[in-house]
C-alpha cells in the first residue's frame, strides 16, 4: 500500500501549497503572512468555550486571578487566552489547553469535541496545520457550586 503524496500542484500564483484546499497559502510569490501566537491563542480559547460541557479554562490560580480582574471597574472581563498556550511555526501550530468541565459530562467525549473544534477553527481561520492539541482537565464544576456562589455574592447585612 502506498502512502499518499503530500504535495499537489500549486494553485496559480502560490508556492508551497501542499494541501490543495486553501491551507498552506501563507507564503506566496507576493509575500509571506505570519500569524502571531496570541491570535492562535484567542482562536483556540474561543473554540474551546463553544463546546457544551466546558465550564471554564485555566488552572485554579489563573481562574482566581481572572475572577479578581473581572471585578475591577473598566476591565474587559475574563481573558480569552486564559489556560491556553500555543506554539506557532511557519506552517504549523500546537496547542495546550486547561479546561474545567461540567459534572456529568463524558470527559473523553468532551476532550474529543474540544480538540476537533480547536483544530477546525485554527486551520480554517489561519491556514496553519494543527499538529497536536493537548487537553488537561483541571477541575469539575459541581451543580451545587452555583448555588453556593450565588449565596455568597449577596449583601452581608440588611
Tell me what you see in this structure.
This protein has helices at about 35-50, 60-70, 105-125, 145-150; strands at about 25-30, 30, 55, 85-90, 90-100, 130-140. The chain is globular. Strands 3, 4, 5 and 6 form a four-stranded mixed beta sheet that branches. Strands 1-2 form a two-stranded antiparallel sheet. With about 160 residues, the chain is of the alpha+beta class. Helix 1 crosses helix 3.
How much helix is in the residues?
A: 25-40%
The class by helix and strand makeup works out as alpha+beta
* Order of helix and strand elements from N to C terminus: EEHEHEEHEH
Terminal-residue CA separation: 77 Å
Low-confidence stretches: 1-23
Mean pLDDT: 79
Dominant shape: globular
Biggest beta sheet summary? 4 strands, mixed
Sheet-strand content, in percent, reads: 15-25%
SS elements, strand count = 6
Count, helices: 4
The Rg value, from CA coordinates, equals 20 Å
Annotation keywords:
4-stranded mixed beta sheet; 23% strand; disordered N terminus; single chain; two-stranded antiparallel ribbon; globular; 158 residues; alpha+beta; 35% helix
Q: How do the helices and strands line up, and which of them pair or pack?
A:
Layout: E1 27-28, E2 31-32, H1 37-49, E3 54-57, H2 60-71, E4 84-88, E5 92-102, H3 107-126, E6 129-141, H4 143-152
Parallel strand pairs: 5-6
Antiparallel strand pairs: 1-2, 3-5, 4-5
Amino acid at each position: 500500500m502506498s502512502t499518499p503524496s503530500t504535495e499537489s500542484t500549486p494553485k496559480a500564483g502560490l508556492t508551497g501549497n501542499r494541501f490543495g484546499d486553501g491551507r498552506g497559502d501563507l507564503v506566496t510569490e507576493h509575500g509571506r503572512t505570519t500569524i502571531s501566537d496570541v491570535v492562535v491563542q484567542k482562536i483556540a480559547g474561543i473554540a474551546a468555550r463553544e463546546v457544551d460541557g466546558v465550564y471554564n479554562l485555566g488552572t485554579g490560580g489563573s481562574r482566581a486571578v481572572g475572577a479578581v480582574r473581572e471585578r475591577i471597574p473598566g476591565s474587559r472581563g475574563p481573558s480569552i487566552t486564559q489556560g491556553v498556550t500555543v506554539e506557532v511555526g511557519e506552517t504549523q501550530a500546537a496547542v495546550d489547553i486547561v479546561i474545567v468541565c461540567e459534572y456529568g459530562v463524558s470527559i473523553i467525549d468532551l476532550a474529543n469535541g474540544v480538540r476537533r473544534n480547536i483544530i477546525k477553527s485554527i486551520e480554517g481561520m489561519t491556514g496553519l496545520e494543527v499538529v497536536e492539541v493537548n487537553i488537561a482537565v483541571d477541575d469539575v464544576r459541581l451543580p451545587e457550586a452555583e448555588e453556593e456562589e450565588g449565596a455568597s455574592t449577596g449583601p452581608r447585612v440588611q
